[in-house]
């Protein structure tokens, strides 16, 4: 399926009035029950052990995340994170000296991140709000960061326009969304997960799938319930994408190509992309024995995370911007409106 009228890719197009389109409320309810990454630890939410376990897991699974963001270059910047989750990056921004603000659709994420800051003795601002209608004035932030959030909101293009609106002239955006042209989408989701759905129809199949895919039996049994209830609907590509990205009850995920991402960011003056993140379980059995050099190559070509680095139009008196390199995040205090006016 090609780009829709807005220029971005989703696996199935739903008219705005369609009852099949997950509502913002459904998305909110799902993440209210399960803030991002919270399922990776059994420690009580809001405790030091809870945050420590989450961070250890997050940066072990995403070893390139720190270099992708460049926290150390955000000192003194007004940073907005859209979708703060459990606050892993929020804490890093604050410790680097950024003036941090986090916004999230759910009260759960806002509360968990606020508690993290309270325990760490850090300062930050937190607000529950909608990425498609950010509750901030125009030209408020020097950097807007969002990791794995905007592909879950129904109107991602509108959310990107909001990112542009709240950025100061010369400000930067660093946004990660799911990548359509990835091995996870074209092989794992469209082929392997369809095969797995057939295996999950039996008790023995559930056990075998748990061993191969390293997914919890609880999740696999939840998948089995959906398969038993309506196997044809479960095999729909959009449903496979939803249920096999962030848990079996996830109501909505979207995927984007480089071209569609650049179309969404067309208001920005400078847009670059980079592909990251590789999961060895996308290639059952052989994935765990691949050399790191091969993994890195596969990640750069067919990884699952599409990072978009973009810059809002510069102020007239700002210095000309060099090409935006993801590793540097494009942060340059000379083109930050607030820094330039000091």
Sum this structure up briefly:
The protein has 14 helices and seven strands. The protein has 342 residues and is α/β, with parallel strands linked by helices. Helix 8 crosses helix 9.
Can you put this structure into words, describing what you see?
The chain has 342 residues and is α/β, with parallel strands linked by helices. The protein folds into two domains: 231 residues, Vaccinia Virus protein VP39 (Rossmann fold, 3-Layer(aba) Sandwich); 61 residues, no CATH class. Helix content is 40%, strand content 14%. The protein contains 14 helices and seven strands. A seven-stranded mixed sheet has the order 3-2-1-4-5-7-6, sandwiched between helices. Strand 2, helix 5 and strand 3 form a beta-alpha-beta unit. Helix 8 crosses helix 9. The longest helix has 17 residues. It is globular. The protein starts with 23 loop residues before the first helix and ends with a helix. The N terminus and C terminus are likely disordered.
The CATH topology label of the largest domain is Rossmann fold
Average pLDDT value? 85
Count of discrete domains: 2
Uncertain runs with pLDDT below 50, 5 residues or more?
A: 1-19, 316-342
Helix content: 40-55%
How many E strands? 7
Order of helices and strands: HHHEHEHEEHEHHHHHHEHEH
Radius of gyration: 20 Å
Q: Please, how many helices?
A: 14
Strand pairing plus helix content: what structural class?
Answer: alpha/beta
Biggest β-sheet description: 7 strands, mixed
Order of strands side by side in the largest beta sheet? 3-2-1-4-5-7-6
| Name of the top-level CATH class of the largest domain | Alpha Beta
Beta-strand residue percentage = 5-15%
Instruction: Tell me, briefly, the overall form.
Output: globular
CATH architecture title of the largest domain: 3-Layer(aba) Sandwich
End-to-end separation in angstroms reads 49 Å
